Amino acid sequence: MPAIVVLGAQWGDEGKGKATDLLATTDPIDYVVRTSGGHNAGHTIVVNGEKFATHLLPSGILTPGATSVIANGVVVSPEALFRELDGLIERGVDVANLVVSSNAHIIASYHSTIDKVSERFLGKNQIGTTGRGIGPAYADKVNRVGIRVADLFDEKILRAKVEAALDMKNHVLTKVYNRRAVEVEAVVEELLAYTERLRPMVVDTSLLLNQALDAGKTVLFEGAQATMLDVDHGTYPFVTSSNPVAGGVCVGAGVGPTRIDRVIGVIKAYTTRVGSGPFPTELFDEDGANLQRIGGEIGVSTGRTRRCGWYDAVIARYSARVNGLTEFFLTKLDVLDSWERIPVCVAYEIDGVRHDEMPMTQTEFHNAVPIYEYFEGWKTDISGCRTFEDLPKNAQVYVKALEEISGAPFWGIGVGPGREQTIVPPRD
Ligand code: GDP
Ligand code: IMO
Ligand code: MG
Fold it and tell me: Engineered SS bond to 371: which of 56, 132, 147, 347, CB 3.0-4.6 Å?
């Protein structure tokens, strides 16, 4: 039985939550796994008109019978974890089937403090992070002064690790940022407050998932963030601090690449981005404002307005390549219902030269000017369409054209936020 990866093919917020939820409810899925990022994610799931948002938790938490897994590659804020769990419990969701890796790194309150002050320090060069402490927690991990989930269960070790983690940071906080030092005991106390509730959830998630795959179970890896936010393959430095690409799933879960059967890239029928950084098809006109308004493009985690632009096939092809996508899931096609004419970026012009592939350097990408092809709009409400043939002719042409230039077949098409507002498969 398969291991399936669902990941973001653009700059995030493509509808990964919806795609994951759809797969988890239409196929018998045994495990839904987060492998990177933390509560910087915001995934929306709409079930029978009721809206849920998950941040640190996998969307599978809403799927009865599925086990939700927070694997080793995730950075876990215990405070955010229990806040999110309590919110779901209040709404009557059964959250018993959740396990957390003993090797996942912890986000403590000082990580978000450092995230915020360092952003302020960057001034006009700021990344526009979510301020959740993601970057500083991954920096500690790579710097080998991180605190892992297992460390919470031995107070002596925890204290020693917190001391080591804060040693240098307090110099920087007081001398560079002119802030108060963080007290070791306050952090130890903050983290110990969660240990009792966390302990029963903690397991070796790599062993669990490999044994599950050996036993023929189906495992769904739910990506967070996206390809263009990947610290290696995205628009560095305007990225997150993890590897949301397909390769990151293997590292973040302790599962070998040979075990992955499908890699689904979720992609919007246009493009959005939150935070700073280059965005070739970004619109600053009425079209951009309309995409923002009709698409409801407001961040689930931070409430920030998302920047909007047309579909970028160069990015789609790049995502197909670096992730080895077996298919795409195209979302939010319905948002384009009212346009007369829809531009699609098919290549870039950079310094007078046409680029069909992502340029090699960031400087070139910053200077990329989209080359557009134009498609006739369909001017019809498609939210009720359930088969490819239900779609108006012009919408069919648009989808087929995107599919041809994007580098992988389209497995599904979203025509609304609801689970049922989907065309799967688009056609034979
Ligand atoms: P994620 O971070 O990739 O899970 O995406 P978000 O939840 O942050 O943002 C996607 C938004 O689009 C959410 O509000 C979804 O409910 C919504 N959505 C997903 N698919 C569709 C679709 O096909 N049509 C419309 N209109 N909305 C969709
Ligand atoms: P989902 O999973 C969109 C962006 C932030 C910022 C950059 C770095 O919902 O698609 P970070 O706090 O991660 O250090 O911020 O990454 N970012 C996202 N943008 N969707 C997300 O998650 C994001 N997670 C991080 O806006 O530009
Ligand atoms: Mg999101």
Answer: 347
